[in-house]
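Task: sequence in, structure out. Protein: Cupin type-1 domain-containing protein.
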Amino acid sequence: MKIPSCSHAHMVSYLVVLLLLPLLSFSADPDSLQDFCVADQSASSISVDGFPCKPASKVTSDDFFFDGLSKVGDTSNIFGSNVTGGNVLTFPALNTLGISMNRVDLAPGGLNPPHTHPRATESGVVIEGQVLVGFVTTGNVYHSKVLTAGQMFVVPKGLVHFQKNVGVGKALIITAFNSQLPGAVVLPSTLFASKPSIPDDVLTRAFQVEEKVVESIKSKLSS
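Result:
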């Protein structure tokens, strides 16, 4: 018996559904269904992609303002830099809004060491000083430029990057992220100061150096 073929219109409909299914699975998160969700960080020790909302009746105007980035960071450390975070942990009103900012202070010669932000793209503007900004692509291509006050940069999500003060005085950068908590994997600390430590033989093989070099770096970063 001959099986009736589907009409042309039905075939087109099936094809459209098949084409759209992959797109739907990779669609962006839906827009917020409320004006705000000020994080109630005391409500629970468990959080999944955000924090519970503080009851609207307990939200005040002060919840929507944060002065943390107005304070100069302490750069008296081995890197000569300090990062002050303006993310959901310090500014709870950012909860569910998908944005955050940092203040980066750099002493003369100071370095914000190579690091990545696994959950966000970073953009920034130099407020003061002269700063070398660089990042490396997944193709192992290095891009960099020396920036002065008023100039901007962008670092694509997840790429290793750094900022170094190459001027004669202090430098200041303000950075912004498309995540309420972008995270930071600081390579020197991650590789040489993790708890527990990465085995020395892994690091000596990876960097092609002797064990005493690895131990020297670990001692400097753990002090």
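The longest helix spans residues 8-25.
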